Amino acid sequence: MTITLNWAILGAGNIAAQFVYDLVLNNQRQTEYRHVVQSIGCSNQARGSEFIKANNITSENNYGVIPVVQSYQELYKNPNVNVVYIGTPHVFHKEQAIECLHNDKHVLCEKPITVNEKDAQEIFTVAKKYNKFCMEAVWTRFFPAIQIVKQEIYQTKVIGEVHRLFADLSYNGDVSSLPASSRVRDRKLAAGSLLDIGIYPITYARILLDDKVGDEHTSFKHKSFLTIDKEDQVDHLCSILFQYKDGKQAVLTSSELVDGPKAYVRLECTGGWVEMYSDNPARANHFKIFDKTGGLVLEYKDDSGYNGFIYEANAVADDINRGKIENDVMPHKETLLVMSVMDSIRKENGLTYDQD
């Protein structure tokens, strides 16, 4: 069975380009999913046209369609679009997602879906009102590597019982050399490591230490430290501790000041450990499982050629085709849970944004 989705891409930045790369590659391979890019929402016509050219969106690999470059308002009204991928900075997500929903569009919105939990809840309330699909684009959850490692660790139990997780997403962004208006530094853009990249270590703690999501989640508590930059008034360094009720612990870190370790995830068990590697710690595409002597038990590496966004895009296609308004892997309640954790961390460390 072939499933067709007609996409609009709202925002013509780097993350949107990576997402579109996977859609184009998927179409070239002529899979059962047809991801047709109908519109590029961009504030600048020339930039939008260059985005189409740079990302090789041609009629040959887009099922005969050359996407139009539109203003955001034109995109919302486009009758040829049924789902919108939002790849803009997170301070704009609430307004843009709600506009899409008001105009009968399904929504896949980049993480974090909003700056705080209350704004995320508002989006989901509107989505339910209009009976439209809406999901935070936490692509990490949809990688085959995640499903395989969870099967090996929790079902097969190849290295015993799980006890501790280390997860990090850090990079040396040379922050001091960036303009104050940069999305890495600007408080008005809700900058800082927690919301931008710290959400990923939190996500790994949710994925790898708990097999339930949303309201069914295993209870946990957390402690945190944010180092607030004196000039920027946002965090560029973040450390969090999780403890689940069954005793499992996680040490979670993020930084825009230093590079992180090659093995950005280490999951420790009674009979060995798991390490995950990638050029991008959000991209869960390579892991090794070791026994307690350091012997290699299993290695998996995704060699599909995709960036990895195709997995969530296909999940969206399946759900919309079935008439669902949320996804079982990344339901609304899981987004709200993680947003509430980040709200609490910011409160604990005195970090607020205008949206609060």
From TrEMBL:
InterPro entries: Gfo/Idh/MocA-like_OxRdtase_N (IPR000683), Gfo/Idh/MocA_domain (IPR050984), GFO_IDH_MocA-like_dom (IPR055170), NAD(P)-bd_dom_sf (IPR036291). Transmembrane segments: none annotated. It catalyses: D-xylose + NADP(+) = D-xylono-1,5-lactone + NADPH + H(+). It comes from Lodderomyces beijingensis. Keywords: Oxidoreductase, Signal. Coiled coil: none annotated. Residues 1-17 form the signal peptide. Its EC number is 1.1.1.179. This is D-xylose 1-dehydrogenase (NADP(+), D-xylono-1,5-lactone-forming). Residues 5-135 form the Gfo/Idh/MocA-like oxidoreductase N-terminal domain.
